[in-house]
Design brief:
Elements (H helix, E strand, L loop, with lengths): L1 E10 L10 H10 L4 E4 L6 H4 L4 E3 L2 E5 L1 E3 L6 E5 L20 H10 L3 E5 L4 E3 L4 E3 L12 E6 H5 L8 H6 L10 H11 L5 E5 L17 H4 L3 E8 L7 H12 L2 E5 L9 E6 L2 E4 L3 E2 L6 E17 L2 E15 L3 E9 L2 E6 L2 E3 L1
Length: 348
């Protein structure tokens, strides 16, 4: 039986450009009732070398890495085998390599790569200038970050509305960029591309204001990735591999849990006597394929095929079928606010 575990990804600490120590990350994640967190400091695996990866009470800490060349797109590296050494000095080389060279290096060492902030972000007023990922023909990456809290929040930010954004940060969350979702749908028609979420958490401060603009405890209650695991997570290193596998295979969905905890959201398909889950590819289907969506909370539920609405209802249950090939995924909204975005089921 599949179990739903919720976690936060794309988290920076004092090991790179964050301003928070890992014990504070752990406490904040436990207070937010997370099951796992994935750290992603820039070009370093030092937290793993220093013994932070593993179970801390009921929280599983996983150490990934944001590979960040100086002038190229960035990506999250999971499950790669760092070179011998302290995990920091040996990886500074990435700052001087192209994004393609970095990606090739990580995947050749067994790693899984997810492109983060894929469209880039440019806010000169706030000293933010992240280049977009451009090498979309490269098949080395497994997935992309389709919804990032920080980059959603900052999208419409200006000096004139900074105070309003600071006081009411969650009101500014509009959902994944439609351009990015369109790109994801197009990529999915060629091959499986997994969608994950990120926070890009750093703990920033506004001059002359006492409270940080985002605390990790607050962020950990917002956008999460829910992974579906076959059975209980074991209190061993196997649990980390289970989280890796769910991310790699797309057995996961993204939700803005501040609106409502999405735990238990279900999207499956069936053909004959076989059932398919998020991330599965269905080949050589001659008859119609049935789709079933169940939500733990009333919502506007949309089943999309290749980015276009195939069926839409308001409620907690949607059941329909199709005979057409395509990339099928689900979006759900609560009072017109974005809530859940599932990984696709691919009908080839």
């Amino acid at each position: 039986m599949l179990k739903d575990y919720k976690g936060a990804c794309h988290i920076h600490t004092k090991y790179s450009d964050g301003t928070i120590q890992i014990p504070d990350v752990i406490t904040s994640a436990q207070d937010a009732d997370l099951d796992f967190v994935i750290l992603s400091d820039h070009n370093t695996f030092s937290p793993k070398h220093d013994g932070w990866e593993g179970w801390h009470g009921d929280l599983l800490v996983i150490v990934g890495m944001e590979v960040s060349p100086r002038r190229a797109g960035h990506f999250l590296a999971l499950n790669t085998q760092p070179l011998a050494g302290n995990g920091n000095v040996d990886l500074r080389k990435y700052r001087h390599m192209t994004s393609k060279e970095c990606l090739d290096d990580v995947t050749s060492n067994g790693g899984t790569a997810f492109i983060v902030h894929p469209l880039g972000k440019r806010k000169i007023t706030f000293n933010i200038n992240l280049e977009a990922w451009n090498d979309w023909e490269h098949n080395g990456f497994t997935g992309i970050e389709i919804w990032s809290y920080l980059h959603d929040w900052i999208h419409d930010l200006k000096l004139s509305n900074l105070w309003h954004f600071y006081k009411y940060p969650n009101r500014q969350i509009k959902g994944p960029d439609p351009k990015l979702l369109s790109l994801w749908d197009r990529l999915g028609q060629k091959r499986k591309v997994v969608g994950i979420s990120g926070l890009d958490a750093h703990l920033r401060r506004i001059p002359f204001v006492r409270k940080p603009i985002f605390t990790y405890k607050e962020l950990f209650k917002t956008i999460r990735t829910h992974v579906l695991i076959d059975g209980e997570l074991s209190k061993s290193d196997e649990a980390i591999q289970s989280i890796y596998k769910a991310h790699k295979e797309g057995m996961c969905y993204i939700s803005f849990d501040l609106l409502a905890d999405a735990t238990g959201f279900m999207f499956v398909a069936n053909s004959g006597d076989r059932m398919y889950h998020m991330g599965d590819e269905v080949f050589n289907i001659e008859n119609e394929i049935g789709f079933c969506i169940k939500s733990p909370h009333p919502a506007t539920i949309k089943l999309l095929r290749n980015g276009k609405i195939h069926r839409e209802i308001k409620g907690t249950f949607l059941e329909t079928s199709s005979t057409e090939k395509g990339v099928y995924r689900v979006e759900a909204y609560i009072e017109n606010r974005p809530w859940v975005f599932t990984n696709p089921i691919y009908v080839r």
